[in-house]
User: Which sequence fits this backbone?
């Protein structure tokens, strides 16, 4: 079995299209990886744009597809959805299941450089290189029409992927993203384990640092709930907002009164995000 061979774990008819859950052997992560794909009904007629969604801490490839309600809007707009798992699993690293803030379910979308993580925890390369190539081989996507989004840790992942590859992702959005991981406890903890104690290595995976180096003309859309329990200590959207304003990076930051960090929040505004990406990718 090679990394180009897919195992179909399950498939389901959904809003006239097909929602599938898959696994494969990943060369990048040196083990089995899982992801999900929603093909809207329009995919039967030919290739379509694709939106990648990166999930947050403790999540898998299932959370977004099960909880967000995105398929209804993707079917309306003719947009393929892809959601990878948030980390490798069962790698044999003794401590990988000990702490929900790093290890299993918490890959942070970086390429680890430190032992014992560096052989398997290469989620940045997996998300930006191996998974898109695999998806392009097996599904009817338009490779030149890709967008990326995510939630929390996945919002961090979406922002860094888009900022580092402006030619690859035409659109980028996020829900309650970790915008300055070098400055918050979640990011500092994960980066120390994955990237080492020298914080100068962290800037390559910090959206606030990246946007000051290479702003572009894409509009970034962020939704953030004002009742999010992690708002002040972990997320700090105003830090990113100030950085964008300083360099002229277009940003729409919508502070949504009363919403928390949950998928109830995501489900409320996912239609806006799908339409935003469709406007950039489908027209």
Assistant:
């Amino acid at each position: 079995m090679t990394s180009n061979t897919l195992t179909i774990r399950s498939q389901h008819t959904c809003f006239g299209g097909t929602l599938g859950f898959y696994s494969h052997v990943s060369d990048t992560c040196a083990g089995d990886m899982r992801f999900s794909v929603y093909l809207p009904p329009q995919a039967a007629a030919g290739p379509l744009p694709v939106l990648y969604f990166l999930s947050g801490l403790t999540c898998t490839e299932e959370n977004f597809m099960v909880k967000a309600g995105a398929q209804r809007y993707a079917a309306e707009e003719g947009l393929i959805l892809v959601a990878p798992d948030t980390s490798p699993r069962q790698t044999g690293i003794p401590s990988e299941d000990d702490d929900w803030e790093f290890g299993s379910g918490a890959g942070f979308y970086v390429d680890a450089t430190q032992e014992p993580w560096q052989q398997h925890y290469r989620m940045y390369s997996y998300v930006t290189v191996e998974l898109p190539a695999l998806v392009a081989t097996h599904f009817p996507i338009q490779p030149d029409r890709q967008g990326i989004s995510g939630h929390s840790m996945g919002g961090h992942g979406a922002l860094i992927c888009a900022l580092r590859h402006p030619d690859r992702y035409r659109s980028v959005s996020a829900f309650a993203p970790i915008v300055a991981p070098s400055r918050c406890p979640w990011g500092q903890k994960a980066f120390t384990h994955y990237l080492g104690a020298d914080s100068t290595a962290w800037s390559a995976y910090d959206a606030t640092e990246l946007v000051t180096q290479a702003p572009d003309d894409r509009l970034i859309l962020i939704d953030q709930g004002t009742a999010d329990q992690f708002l002040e200590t972990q997320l700090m959207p105003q830090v990113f907002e100030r950085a964008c304003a300083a360099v002229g990076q277009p940003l729409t930051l919508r502070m949504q009164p009363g919403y928390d960090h949950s998928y109830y929040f995501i489900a409320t505004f996912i239609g806006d995000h799908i339409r935003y990406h469709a406007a950039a990718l489908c027209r």
About this structure: The chain has a mean pLDDT of 96. The longest strand covers residues 17-26. The chain is about 35% helix and 25% strand. The two ends are 38 Å apart (CA to CA).
